[in-house]
Structures are given as C-alpha cells and as structure tokens.
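pasting input
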Amino acid sequence: MSAATATHAQEAPLLPTKLRNARALWAVLIIMALLAGCALLFARGSMRLSGDWQTQLSDTLTVQILLEDANAWTAQTSAASTSLTDVFPGADVEVVSQNNARELLRPWLGNAALPDNLPVPALINVTGSNVSATKAKAALDAAEIVANIDDNTRYADQLRGTAKRLVGIGMGVLSLILLAGLCVNIFATRASMTAQKEIIRVLVQVGASDKFIAKLFIGQAFRRGAMGAAIGLGLASGLWLILSIMGDWGGLGWTGFGAGLTDIFWLVGLGILFAVICAGAAGMTATRQLAFERKRL
Amino acid sequence: MSTIPDLVNFERVALRYGRGPEVLTDATLDLPQGSFTFLTGPSGAGKSTLLKLCYLSLIPSRGLIRMFGRDSALLTNPERQAIKRRVGVVLQDFHLIEHLSVYENVALPLRVSGQSRSTYNADVVELLQWVGLGHRMQALPPTLSGGEKQRCAIARAVIAKPDLLIADEPTGNVDPEIGRRLLRLFSEMNRMGATVLIATHDTHLIDELDARVLRIEAGRVFKGKPE
C-alpha cells in the first residue's frame, strides 16, 4: 500500500463494531423503542381525542324547559326556539320531540305507560361555535321561560380528568421504558468494557485519557441507541398506521395527515432522546468503571 | 561538572501481588536521560514486574519511583497520561488490537494524542517499511507471524518518538537478522535522545552493544552482567 492510499483510507473504529452476542442487545433495544413509541403514540392519541371531545362538548347546550302543564309544550318550545335563534343566529336549534323526550325518561320510570298529562320537560339542543349558557339563560329569562341549561361542563370535566389519567399512564409507561433503557445500557456498557478489556489496556498504555476511552463507548452506545430507536420507532409508527387504517380507534389513531405528521415529529424527538439516554448511560458507566479500575490498581 | 538528570529513579522499591511474597525487594536503580540499558536475569526474577513499574502499569507496595523528575505516587491522572505518552512500550505478548490493521495499530499512539491521519501517514508508512512490514500494512494481527507481530509492536512503541523506550524481550520471536535490525532501530532512537531499557535473556544481544547492564536476581537489582 502506498502512502497516498493509506492517507485516503478511513480511520477504523477503535472499538469493534461487530460484537459477538450483541444481537440480543439489539433485540432488547428495538423492542424497548417499539414499546416506548407505542406508549408515546397512545399518550398523544389520548390527548388528541380529549381535545376533540371537549371541542364538541363546548359547542353544545341542552335547554330543559320545565313545564307545569303538558299542553303548554308547543307554545313554550316555540317561544324558546325563537329566543335562542335570535340570540345565536348561526347556531343549530333543534327541539327534541315530545315522544323522544318521554322516551328519555324510560330508564328512570320503567316500561309502564306514562300518563298523557305528565309534564315531561321539553328539550332543545343548541349546537354552534358561539353558544353560551349565560346568554341562553338571559334570553329565556327575558321570554319568561323557566329552564335549566346544561352546557356539559361536568361531563367535560370528567372527560378531561379521564384523558389526563390516560396521558399520565402513557407517559408513565414511557418513562419506565426509558429508565429500563438506561439500566440496560449501563449493564451493556459494563459487559462491553469487560469484553474489550485488552483494547482498553492498550489504549491506556499509549496514553489515552479516561475521557478519550469513555467517548469511544459513548459513540458506540449512541450509534446503537439511534439504530435501535430508528428500527423500533419505525415499527411503532407502522403498527399505528395499520391500526389507524384497519381498526375503529375513534380518534386514538391517526385521523389525518396532520395528526400523523405531528406524531412522527414526536417520535423523532423520542428517538433522539433514546439515543442520548443510551450514550449518557455508557459515558457515565465507562467513566466510573475506568476510575474504579485505576483505584483498584 | 554537569550531571545528567535521571529519567527514571527507583529508591528501595518493593512490590508484592496481593498478599503474596515480594516479587521485587528494595530495588534501587536509575536510568539517566539518553542512556541505553539492558535488564537481564533468569525467568521469574521480576524483570517484567520492574518494567511494569517503569511504565506506570503497577503501583509499588513501598519505596519511591520518580519518573521524569516527578514522584509517581503524586501524579494526577492527566500527568500520568502525559507521562505514558512519553513512554513507548513493547510487551512480550505484543498487545496488538486484533480488529485494527497493522497500520492502525502502529498509528494508535499518534491517533490517541489527537493527531490527524494526514499528519502522521507518511511517518507510519516509512516506519513500517523500515521494520519490514511495508507489504503487510492492511493485514490484521491474527494473520501475522510471531515475528511480524513483534515488529508491529515495536513500530507502535517508537512511532511517537518517545523519551523513554521500554521493551520486554523485543527480539525473542524474530530471526537474528531482523533482531539486529531492530536493535539498530533502538540504537537509532537512543542516538536521537531516547532513553532505552530492554529486558532480555539474550546475552548475544547484550554483547552487540556497549550498553549499561542491570541484572535482577531474586527480586533484587544489581549492576553488571551476570557471572
């Protein structure tokens, strides 16, 4: 080989790239990344779903007109509809039919025939982006209609709480997986240092600092983590895509291109975090192990 | 009268492995700067142990070792690494990195010290040709013969032009011609200012040069050739 070709050849990595028994470690890293990706996508899906539901609920009011006389149903609902249409011009005001309103009482009153003169409350659903319970109440009061207005606040609060718990579960599982990834990498770095004891000895002999040696293990772990994350998270996004297309996930899956793209960005961030955790664990372990070996000398 | 400073200085140095007996007892020696010294003695006498102490691979059980004028026990980590970079070592079992080519193994001390390949490439190639490994630059150590491994290890030890060159039986696995050539390389390094310490059984090798001789017997160091 001439001097010129030696110059152009690339510097070989100081740590071997193909390690025996590293396949099991690869498998563990890929599975962890896959699980972490699924946990993140689940948490993101829960957040998205909760947002959608809350938006839908905040656009809806249910007006319950309390009738003293069943015969006043038509007059009262007509007056209320007019008032509500006036105050919310763009909104959809829908009067629930008397029969349907009576049906809603069945779960509480049983299957017995209801008397015709029973003053079943009249129901009006108002749907629109600018609906407000306060304005509706004021308009109905002005029309001298006695009514309760349900703006679904309690239901929305319950939904919000449930969604928060789901997101918390997803993030908790994700944190546990990342913690496990940290531990696996600490163990893997120790094993790798033991397997490459001779190389470390030579490096120390030629004057390599602990920092120099630790950097080799950091680089190795970062590459391993990044590759594992790329494969595992790629599988997670593939799985999520299939489930979104095939299954009825009602918004938990990807409902459109925008949702999918945003989640992919989150997965890329997770992949970087995963690789950084692998590298950090390796750096910490290598530095501590080298210091320990020196003290033991 | 000017005195030549000692590069290495041992004062009543002893070493035991674990709770075993002392392998080295009250060893007192000095290696003046620019000197060429042979260390001889029977197998198991403690030659390799003494060399390990010289290149800071072991810490003595007692006694004082000064390296480059510094008490080795008081060296900080960076200082210890800086001293190691000034010492070239050839070990009996070569300690070559098996997945690196001959070229990469020899260039290792320069790479570790942060030099770029373009700055050291010509030196590495020239040295490998000099030690007769010019045609084996891309070979991996497992494919080398014992003599080739030894020459590779020697080339790695001298590539960074160390101030102190330590070799443990450096000509043990090579034919007499290559042995003489390697000895010439050590002499050349010495003429260029390096202090050389060679441990060997080979009395012919010792006779080739007019150099200081230290002998080690039962863990104690004496001056002069064995009787």
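fyi The helical segments of chain B are 47-54, 77-85, 102-112, 117-130, 146-158, 176-191, 203-208.
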